[in-house]
Design brief:
2 copies of one chain form a homodimer.
Chain A (H helix, E strand, L loop, with lengths): L10 E4 L1 H5 L9 H13 L4 E6 L12 H8 L6 E5 L3 H10 L3 E7 L2 H8 L3 H16 L8 E7 L12 H14 L3 E6 L6 H15 L7 E3 L6 H11 L3 E4 L19 H10 L8 H6 L1 H7 L9 H4 L7 H7 L1
Parallel strand pairs in A: 1-2, 1-8, 2-3, 3-4, 4-5, 5-6, 6-7, 7-8
Helix pairs in contact in A: 2-3, 2-12, 4-6, 6-7, 7-8, 8-9
Chain lengths: ~325, ~325
């Protein structure tokens, strides 16, 4: 191992504080969120989606969004991402200092209507307002706007989602000024062959620089295989959630996002650098246990521990 | 869908009645095992590892091995596989009518000593006796002998397992007369890059016809990604266990083999034919619930159900 810090080949974006927490009954106290974010950053996670700027009446657990973004911004080197469903949320995220705002628009119109009560035309209008606001931010610290193309791989309401619909919405979002678009497997229904098709089409149509990363849920147990397929398609950025937090409203026992620590283990064992210290990452789970004792934590690696991992030498050296 | 029966491209080998059950505290009653085997075959599973011929004092749940093989042989079209750790077990399996006997030999000598109390030389001697016995069976119904190369991807005792050791043991087994060898991820520690390396080396050294299939555990959450990697390496046969049965002695909450129904869903969604009716396969879980009410069943697809699968048309048509 070289002592010189290298830029890791792969970025794992911890989305647990947003996507993981927003669906849970428990509310993780603000102090625990801060400890988690600091501990994840200390473990080597360089990008965290820390919160969602939504009405506290709708998602009480996100009432501390402003405080959380401001805290996260004090951590050197951390890329702070916030979700905002509309221009009001984006304005708050920009004001708090988020480096990037992710705005979800569902490829399935039915899902978009159910999730954010907008048609596609209304969502594009909203995006235009967000872009105008982004362009008013100081150039030196101008935040990025990314569109999460929800239901890109299938929809719980509409069923199959045609790839042409993904491409059409992506084109509109980029033409409106979004910095990136990311296809999201919102309901965990993608399969690896489809993942490769979707990325090949997006890269072919818009170039790799315009496609943000990947977002898989593990609802049907396909998350890790889909992440591998995305990796093989050229993806280098992966959303994931500590302890697989998140769940699914349609599936009581199913896990949420793919599990950060299991994914990091896979990538590191494959010889790809994530910059993550697995022992420190696993220790972050204790913060969740302490702050949300009634929530079930998922993830396989944590059950086995690191002692028996194959590359024992590397893990030990990283400590 | 054509009404003409086609040979499915991919074979999923249900190993739950052997690998899944052997580690559980509960004993699945013989009548339930028979119902499970019949129901799995009726769902389109064409190969089942139905039992292990080991002393009942060691694994009480396998005391009915002879009865189970004889029952399974009454199901038309079903390939009946039994595990046997030695010539005594193989003789019993041949006598009961097993089409194939799988004999485990660990690549890691330490694991082989711990698991079957033999050195490699002793295991090869034992294999020679099994091969002699196989060759005495009537030519028209001569069973196959497959070696499960346990710990091919890593060992809980020895740590990393060199690929050269896998190749060396495979060569000895094939030279001694084994029909096939299958690398097994006994402790669920493989990663996808390694899976591709191991299969490329085995195929390159011995030809694809001599390599039996694949055997992954999901101990570290890598099972589905490893199965995808194996598929891409050219593997067309996958061991899996209904409801991910099996567990791991070192990891109380970890699942066992990769989950048959989640794997079948992935392959079918990728457009690969497994011959399996997913609805009928999922229904097999009820037999386990009924026969082992205290055992936790894993698997993601069962939590969501089939109603929201993408290819609703195909699933409906298969009913």
């Amino acid at each position: 191992m070289s002592a010189i810090a290298e830029t890791p080949a792969i970025s794992i974006v911890e989305v647990g504080p947003r996507d993981g927490l927003q669906i849970l009954k428990s509310i993780l106290p603000t102090a625990h969120k801060k400890r988690w974010i600091a501990a994840a950053a200390s473990a080597g996670v360089r990008e965290i989606e820390v919160c969602s700027f939504v009405p506290a009446a709708v998602v009480p657990g996100m009432a501390d969004a402003d405080e959380i973004v401001r805290y996260a911004r004090t951590i050197a080197g951390l890329q702070v991402i916030a979700l905002a469903p509309n221009v009001k949320g984006a304005a708050a995220a920009f004001a708090a200092g988020a480096h990037k705002v992710t705005m979800p628009i569902s490829v399935s119109v039915q899902h978009n209507l159910a999730n954010i009560r907008k048609t596609h035309a209304q969502s594009i209008d909203e995006l235009r307002r967000v872009i105008d606001l982004r362009d008013q931010q100081p150039k030196a610290s101008r935040p990025a706007v990314e569109i999460g193309l929800s239901t890109s791989f299938g929809c719980s309401i509409a069923g199959a989602v045609p790839l042409e619909d993904v491409l059409r919405l992506a084109e509109k979002c980029l033409a409106t000024g979004a910095d990136h678009v990311t296809p999201a497997d919102t309901i965990g229904i993608a399969n690896p062959a489809q993942v490769k098709r979707v990325y090949a089409a997006l890269y072919g149509a818009f170039g790799k620089a315009k496609i943000g990363g990947s977002h898989f849920h593990d609802t049907r147990g396909q998350g890790m295989a889909n992440a591998l397929a995305a990796l093989e398609a050229g993806v280098t950025s992966f959303d994931a959630s500590l302890a697989g937090l998140g769940g699914c409203p349609f599936a009581p026992g199913a896990s949420g996002n793919i599990c950060t620590e299991d994914l990091a283990w896979m990538l590191e064992e494959m010889g790809l650098s994530t910059g993550i210290d697995l022992a420190k990452l696993l220790a972050c789970r204790d913060i969740l246990k302490d702050g949300m004792p009634n929530e079930k934590l998922s993830g396989h690696l944590a059950e086995v521990g690191l002692a028996r991992t194959q590359s024992g030498g590397r893990v030990a050296a990283a400590r």
